Amino acid sequence: MPRQPRTGVDEKLLDAAAALFARHGFEQTSLKSLADAVGLSKAGLLHHFPSKEALFEAAWAQSRVLSKQVADLVAPMPAGHARERRALELLTDVALDRPGLVSLLFRSMTAPGEDPQQAQDELLINEMFVIDPEKELPRAVRIVGALSAMAVLTLLANKEGDKTTWRPLILATCYDALGHQEA
Q1: Is 90 exceeded by the pLDDT of residue 171?
Q2: Segments making up each domain of the chain, as ranges
Q3: Where does the record place the HTH tetR-type domain (predicted)?
Q4: What is the 8-class DSSP label of residue 55?
Q5: What region, left, alpha or beta, does residue 161 occupy, with left being phi > 0 and alpha being psi -120 to 50 degrees?
Q6: What is the pLDDT of residue 2?
Q7: How confident is the model at residue 4, as a pLDDT?
Q8: pLDDT, tens digit (0-9, with 9 covering 90-100), for 145-154
Q9: How far apart are CA 107 and CA 150, in angstroms?
Q10: CA dist 131 to 82, 94, 127, Å?
Q11: Alpha carbon distance 38, 82 (integer Å)
Q12: CATH no., domain 9-177
């Protein structure tokens, strides 16, 4: 069972590790590359997490914690455009702050089978957007499109170093992908 990260150092470490796991996959990501990415020795990294496996599990767990927080915040809202807009706002803010975790979540869509709990992630998204994908395929495709656009655009915003300018553009793009008119 992965431990919960401490605020600050572990969160940054998890995000950097998640980015490497997303880019190279679990097998191709070495402890040395993980340690180098966060400016630690291998021993220093192992002080925070006892193994590469524990770090990988903690990165996935942290992404789920953040996703669950968003789902919990929108759960009291009635289904509809306002709920979807709020979910997109919250998810975009998380994505802008944690690009590595977003990369790791996005990898689960492009490299199926690496995430042992992918089905739980899909259920969480279905709850967040109040959808039954088997009965509403066109809408499910729009939701995946909106979330995919968010993932790519937030990664680009981080690369450009201009989250403030990009945020409203990302939200407008995601909202458009859902087929909603701007309010």
Answers
A1: yes
A2: 9-177
A3: 7-67
A4: H
A5: left
A6: 45
A7: 44
A8: 999 999 999 9
A9: 14
A10: 15, 22, 7
A11: 39
A12: 1.10.357.10
